Amino acid sequence: MRAARTLRRRWVAVLEPHGLSPHQARALRAVVAAADGLRVSDLAAALRIAPRSATEVADGLQTAGLVVRAADPADRRAVVLRATDAGHDLAAGVARARAEDAEALVARLDAGDRAELARLLRLVADDDHDRAGGCTTTA
């Protein structure tokens, strides 16, 4: 938990100069990744939050000029979120800043330790393995 808190604190610090909250950064990344736009309901599912909360996050991104609402090309009655040029630029800048911070975080590890950490984190993060019953814990 201490490592998770450290990562969260560093993530918030990386986002601060960009004026984004972690929720906004994740939402912007999801919108940028959606080439044809992203419905707010799909954004809610991607962020694992209530649709009302996703609407609030989208409103904040729109107010900041990072996304626009547009007609869904597949259903003109529906609306999708699309990243503006500023949104794309900011998402790219945040990704670079996060990568730089991650590099600084593990800089104290030698190459072997980095490889081992990456292997262990992949193992811990393997949800499919957990669901298949392959992961057991002891108390």
Structural notes for this entry:
With 139 residues, the protein is mainly α. It has 7 helices and 2 strands; from the N terminus they run ααααββααα. A two-stranded antiparallel sheet has the order 1-2. α1 packs across α5 and α3 packs across α4. The radius of gyration is 18 Å and the shape is elongated. The model has no long low-confidence stretch (mean pLDDT 91).
Indicate the multimeric state.
single chain
Number of strands: 2
Structural class: mainly alpha
What distance separates the N and C termini? 16 Å
Question: From the alpha-carbon coordinates, what is the Rg to the nearest angstrom?
Answer: 18 Å
Q: What percent of residues are in strands?
A: 5-15%
Q: What low-confidence regions span 5 or more consecutive residues with pLDDT below 50?
A: none
Q: How would a textbook summarize the main sheet? A: 2 strands, antiparallel
Q: How do the strands of the widest beta sheet line up side by side? A: 1-2
Overall shape: it is elongated
Q: Output the number of helix runs.
A: 7
Average residue pLDDT: 91
- Helix share of residues? 55-70%
Order of helices and strands: HHHHEEHHH
Write the topology of this structure.
Elements: H1 2-15, H2 22-33, H3 40-47, H4 51-63, E1 67-72, E2 75-83, H5 85-106, H6 111-124, H7 127-131
Antiparallel strand pairs: 1-2
Helix pairs in contact: 1-5, 2-4, 2-5, 3-4
